[in-house]
Amino acid sequence: MLKGKVALVTGSTSGIGLGIARSLAEAGADIILNGFGDATEIDDAKRAIESEFGVKARYNGADMTQPEAIASMISAAEEMGGVDILVNNAGIQHTAPVEEFPPSKWDAIIAINLSSVFHASRAVLPSMRKKGWGRIINTASAHGLVASPEKSAYVAAKHGVIGLTKVIALETAGSGITCNAICPGWVRTPLVEKQIEKIAEEEGISIDEAAGRLLGGKQPSKAFATPEQIGAFAVFLSGSAADQITGASLPIDGGWTAQ
Ligand code: NAD
User: Which of 3, 53, 213, 252 is the least crowded, having the fewest Cβ atoms under 10 Å away?
Assistant: First the structure.
């Protein structure tokens, strides 16, 4: 379905991004992985995508806090034919009350979780407009729609991503380009594992009990969503059935934001 398309997934060396990259590859897209991590593990992930799905896979280690690095990653993608599907997914988390929140963490979360979406989107739009086709899919969060305590920077960034998604959707409407935000609830990735460990430590309970407490507090289904489910949704948004879905913020959150 996506044969001949090139998908760049930021923050795809782990978790949801890797799930999305693998799903897009399964649907036939060539893939550019991005993110940090162990060089051997990244190489293994790249090779697995090529051998399992018969597509091309590349890796670019651009730091998403650096606008110049983002721009050169997108220029480098020209060698593969240019980015047709941009998934803005890189993200980090830090939890603390506002008055204890380190300003350096605030700046980093805004840079990676919000500003990188602007920098990457502005860099891909000219070639998408020339082709008359493109998909920008932003991994926002249930925290783009509702708030929780101790997540000021994250909630501000994710609400910002949803606003930016709407603006890009309006500016590109009718051009063959769509821009949407996926809003996952809890997905058990390294980003969430750290929060589970923090609950276990603070409350003196097991990791399993802490995971149950995390889910029970927010997600009525009491089950984690998976990177594969988020990936399957990104594939749907990339297909022609989703041509008229744009500017939307779509929860995959077990009922979290229905409350
Ligand atoms: P993760 O920690 O498994 O993955 C984060 C990815 O971002 C990694 O590949 C990491 O290397 C990359 N990254 C971090 N800083 C970077 C930087 N400066 N430059 C380039 N890459 C960088 O976390 P995840 O849970 O898979 O999160 C992915 C996205 O999903 C994030 O935007 C997160 O906010 C969002 N999200 C996660 C959940 C969840 O429950 N896990 C829920 C809603 C939204």
Answer: 3
Alpha-carbon span 124 to 117, nearest angstrom: 11
| CATH architecture entry for 6-185+225-251 | 3-Layer(aba) Sandwich (3.40)
**Residue 69 Cα, ligand 1 centroid: separation in angstroms?**
18
Q: How far is the CA of 174 from the centre of ligand 1 (A)?
A: 31
Range list for CATH 3.40.50.720 in the chain? 6-185+225-251
Put simply, whether the predicted model's pTM sits higher than 0.85 gets the answer yes
pLDDT digits (tens, 9 = 90+) for 12-66: 999 999 999 999 999 999 999 999 999 999 999 999 999 999 999 999 999 999 9
DSSP 56-121: -EEEE---TT-HHHHHHHHHHGGGGT--SEEEE-------B-GGG--HHHHHHHIIIIIIHHHHHH
52 in contact with ligand 1, CB cutoff 6 A = no
Residues with Cβ < 8 Å from 208, sequence gap 6 or more?
Answer: none
